[in-house]
Amino acid sequence: MKTDIEIAQEATVLPITEIAEKAGLKPSEIEPYGYDKAKINLDKDVKRDHEGKLILVTSINPTPAGEGKSTVTVGLADALQAAGKKTMIALREPSLGPVMGMKGGATGGGYSQVVPMADINLHFTGDFHALTAAHDLLAAALDNSIYQGNPLHIDQRRVIWKRVLDINDRALRHTTIGLGGPTSGVPREDGFDITVASEMMAILTLSTDLMDLKRRVNNIVVAYDFDKQPVTVKDLGVAGAITVLLKDAIKPNLVQTLAHTPAVIHGGPFANIAQGTNSVLATRTALTLADYAVTEAGFGADLGGEKFMDIKVPKLGKEPDVVVVVATVRALKHHGGQALADLKQEDLSALEAGVANLQQNIKAMKRYGVPVVVAVNRFTDDTEAELAMVREAAEAVGAQAVTADVWAKGGAGATDLAELVVEKAAEKHGFSPLYEENDSAVEKMNKIVQNIYGGAGVELSDKAKKQLATFAEQGWDKLPIVMAKTQYSLSDDAKKLGAPKDFTIHVREFVPKLGAGFLVALTGNVLTMPGLPKHPAAMDIDIDEKGRITGLF
Amino acid sequence: MKTDIEIAQEATVLPITEIAEKAGLKPSEIEPYGYDKAKINLDKDVKRDHEGKLILVTSINPTPAGEGKSTVTVGLADALQAAGKKTMIALREPSLGPVMGMKGGATGGGYSQVVPMADINLHFTGDFHALTAAHDLLAAALDNSIYQGNPLHIDQRRVIWKRVLDINDRALRHTTIGLGGPTSGVPREDGFDITVASEMMAILTLSTDLMDLKRRVNNIVVAYDFDKQPVTVKDLGVAGAITVLLKDAIKPNLVQTLAHTPAVIHGGPFANIAQGTNSVLATRTALTLADYAVTEAGFGADLGGEKFMDIKVPKLGKEPDVVVVVATVRALKHHGGQALADLKQEDLSALEAGVANLQQNIKAMKRYGVPVVVAVNRFTDDTEAELAMVREAAEAVGAQAVTADVWAKGGAGATDLAELVVEKAAEKHGFSPLYEENDSAVEKMNKIVQNIYGGAGVELSDKAKKQLATFAEQGWDKLPIVMAKTQYSLSDDAKKLGAPKDFTIHVREFVPKLGAGFLVALTGNVLTMPGLPKHPAAMDIDIDEKGRITGLF
Q: Does the keyword Nucleotide-binding apply (chains A, B) (predicted)?
């Protein structure tokens, strides 16, 4: 069997100028990066009143068995294109850290990939590197302000702006900096996150233009002073420089699928501590240019799906016309208790327990009043009895389910899914927001836990309660909530698979993200800097004298 | 008076495809990055036996008064082009850290600039970001190896591979990492350098192709084990991944001057702890395509010039046909003792003392047997008497001097200089290497100090002596030497301006750079991570809704 990188390197990739033309872009609206990548710079003078249908692909809670959400997203878009629909994909950019670590890239798989696969998974057009530089320039300016007489009275024990690198590097999670004597700064505790966890990433992907980005950057709270008052980027005076560093990163990137469907790939915020979906500008670009804009949200519907609806939709000004929940029989059996080693065996009793996870994620998405369908990403070992059980479980909660076989067949494996999506997208539907702006933070979280996770409600630590009181004084208490929870369970306990009941979500601490415009509620330990495994993927990656890359996946 | 960025933003920039055609590149030999930048990918099947003349621009020891070396380099090239000579420039890429700090960019100035100025000074084509990622992936792999059972027996007190960021951030000079308990690594002392100080940068700019780069990366010594034996990248097994990360960064970048002279800008190693000049591939590209390849070396002739001759020329396989030493009357007066505040006043006695610095730098370059000329970068306050004194001083040591007025006039201000360069380049000359491979390290350094700096010789610390003994056991003792010395003085004392005599250079410590293939001799304190000043340049940089950038210089 060919590897993803082999399939990608053997593919016929059209010049990006051709893809741009197909997408309806003028030559002056793209800035090529090599022959197969481009930045999109939409001309505001071109009248485009068009708005396509928005298809959101999400999934059950992820398991080590794999769901193939990106692969289904790409396959579905290729199937829509093959059916004669003008289609564009809007996806997140992969982070380099996991590519070199364990997870691999995020460009789909098999015959449902976006290309150039290697470039997209490596530096792409430099967006993440620009974010790293912007984030770390801010950190340097902050420590420099402390060093140069500390005119803002920054309490170095209360700095909340860490540094970032787009590398999986656990040794940088907790550091001390400013050591080495009086000429090398002021010592304090610090740490590094991975770049995708930066608030800069959340800002970049929520901004509607460069001036909106600058306004948001100015609002970032980086520390507290000795009077416990917030210190912002505005106080440090470097928002202009940061905006200059992000002037190209804010432009969405154009690439293509193996079937030459135009794909916009832009931004990649975490789906736990941020909104977990590609940029507002990227999705808006796809909606403006295409009749079907197929996009994706990170992790399961409980995390990425909920944040898409509650955080992104208001900024985008458009709700999904269809939500596709991706599941695999294997993953559902694992949710129902079957061991990973046994997943090739039919196990209807495990599956019967596991489908509850799918059902809760369907119910979560249906809560918003939009049509929901299920895509069962097919594996060779799936039995007919198993597939039938999944279909029935989905239908029992009001979602039609079809199988897709996109890894091996590309768009041809998603014909039924595309047909169903087109049919559902034509249905009239409303949109019911889950919470109101004026709901208290606790009310908002309770609505998320009860309606989306299927749990009882939230419980706040003393620290979290105290924080909310302070936030009320600052006028921050009515901001939307981003729940930072394990992706593996609907609850905050990664080990509770399936669809746990009567659980409480424990909020340990809030992190105010005033630039992004939300409060992050931390439940349990959220890892914002991954580590490398014993045998990192980097050890298997190589390139030969002809430029052929191996080991990238 | 217009600022550099205003002049640059008002310029007519030709499409990079036109510049490429003018330079003699086939359309398939460039990869455009936007409309005004491209990567060059020379087709090995195209026969090009051509080799142009190599013009090296260097300078006196830099002072706070400024010399304008890059500006003269660009102006000279534009003048050569205007005279009908097929010309290309080969320059280093600027580092983002100083752009946001104090020094500003490195794209020339006034009407002698390379453009797009802002892009080149910011992320350009992402080369430095790729180097940062490659460097820090290696650091993460190293700490991960220690964490995952330490199979290589790395002594965490003897790790010599630090981390890098392309930001001026003094608080990262000395850090402790791996804190936070057993799941977050193994605690040890660490620190960050600026990206341009990375051995990866030295390697990228010395490599002749991607496989040569991989070979060099494998050779990097990152630490010592508990038996004090070197641990290399080969042992860690990540050279393939690092090479993949640098697959595009190794390709030279094509841009243009304001006068549309093609310019190759690529790589930017420090001129103290590395060779301080653009990549071998970039200079080779300019030599292959043009009749006159104008290039530059960092800091003064004693640092960048010497390293160009002793480190780069052997890899390039070509010596300079003319060396241009840039000086200003202001800077020479400062070398002779005139205070910075008084530099607008004529002061022939200060100048008489100061020209000794110019003379020593001329003698240093003449030592190699190549023609040397002096370009006096003219300022409005320079008097005729002062200019005459500089000319006479240069002629007294065998170098003709002409004035250039390139900031205000561009190439038109360097007509005399271009004529002189063409004349000298036609002269027959030899090339006498300063030292032989088989000279001992001490012999090599004595030759540098005596012939280039005009000093007495070197003195080694006990530690440095002990290191040389160890290096002899490892077989490293015959590597070329990179002297890491202050750029401000010919001696190792930054305060000794002019041309000090009878001084000794004190070598504190050696740093073996087995990937780059040289030993760095540290004299005094060499700062490899700059700090931000009280009022960083970043505070004045801004961008408006039309994309106009201000405050970049």
A: yes
Tokens of residue A381, six digits: 């070992």
Q: How far is Cα B232 from Cα B217, in angstroms, rounded to an integer?
A: 9
Integer CA distances (angstroms), B429 to B56, B363, B369, B372, B540, in order: 15, 16, 7, 11, 49
Predicted local distance difference test score (pLDDT) of residue B116: 94
How far is CA A276 from its chain centroid? Answer: 3
Q: Where are the alpha helices (DSSP H) in B383-510?
A: 384-396, 406-409, 415-425, 441-447, 462-474
Residues of A in contact with B175 (CB under 8 A): 175-177, 179
Exposed/middle/buried for B491, CB within 10 Å: 0-12, 13-18, 19+? buried
Contact B340, B334 (CB under 8 A): yes
Q: Which of A35, A123, A178 sits opposite B31 (nearest CB)?
A: A35
Residues of B forming the annotated binding site? 63-70
Nearest to B247 among A171, A534, A547 (CB): A547
Helix ranges (H only) for A255-373 are 280-289, 306-307, 313-316, 329-335, 348-366
Of all residues in chain A, the one with the smallest CA distance to B549 is A244
Q: B183: which chain A residues are within 8 Å (Cβ-Cβ)?
A: 170, 531
B231: which 2 tokens? Answer: 């641990």
User: What is the tally of helices (H) and strands (E) in chain B?
Assistant: 20, 26
Hey, CA dihedral for A213, A218, A223, A227, is it positive or negative? negative
Question: Of A147, A165, A537, which is closest to B170 when you measure between CB atoms?
Answer: A147
Instruction: Please give the residue that has the higher pLDDT: either A44 or A63.
Output: A63
Phi, psi of B448 (to 5 degrees): -65, -50
Q: Which residues of B touch A241 (CB under 8 A)?
A: 100, 537-539, 541-542, 551
Q: Does the distance separating the beta carbons of B31 and A244 come in below 8 Å? A: no
Would you say A255 and A116 are in contact if contact means Cβ atoms under 8 Å apart?
Answer: yes
Which residues of B have a catalytic role annotated?
69, 71, 92, 103, 271, 299, 379, 407
User: Which residue, among A179, A212, A213, A535, would best test binding to B if mutated, counting the most B CBs under 10 Å from its CB?
Assistant: A179
Q: Hey, is the C-beta of B166 within 8 angstroms of any chain A C-beta? A: yes
pTM for the whole structure: 0.96
- Tell me, what DSSP letter sits at residue B411? G
Strands (E), A93-173: 108-109, 112-115, 154-159, 163-165
In which element (H, E) is residue B245 found? Answer: helix B239-245
d(CA A451, CA A302): 10
Q: What ipTM does this complex have?
A: 0.95
- Given this model, what pLDDT does residue B103 score? 64
Sequence-distant (6+) residues with CB within 8 A of A141 are A236, A238, B532, B536, B538, B539
Q: Which of A122, A129, A168 sits opposite B244 (nearest CB)?
A: A122
Burial of A308 (0-12, 13-18, 19+ CB in 10 A): buried
Q: Which residue of A has its CA nearest to B145?
A: A534
A536 conformational bin, left if phi > 0, alpha if psi -120 to 50, beta if neither: beta
Residue-wise pLDDT tens digits, B428-440: 999 999 999 999 9
Q: Hey, CA dihedral for B188, B189, B193, B199, is it positive or negative?
A: negative
Contact check, Cβ <8 Å, A542/B238: no
Kindly indicate the confidence band of residue B8, based on its pLDDT and cuts at 50, 70 and 90. confident
pLDDT for A5: 85
Residues of A in contact with B240 (CB under 8 A): 538, 540-543, 551
Vertex B249 angle, CA B248 and B255, to 5° = 95
CA within 13 Å, CB half, A265: 33
Q: How many residues would you count in chain A?
A: 553
- Give the pLDDT of residue A104: 62
Are B245 and A545 a contacting pair, CB within 8 Å? Answer: no
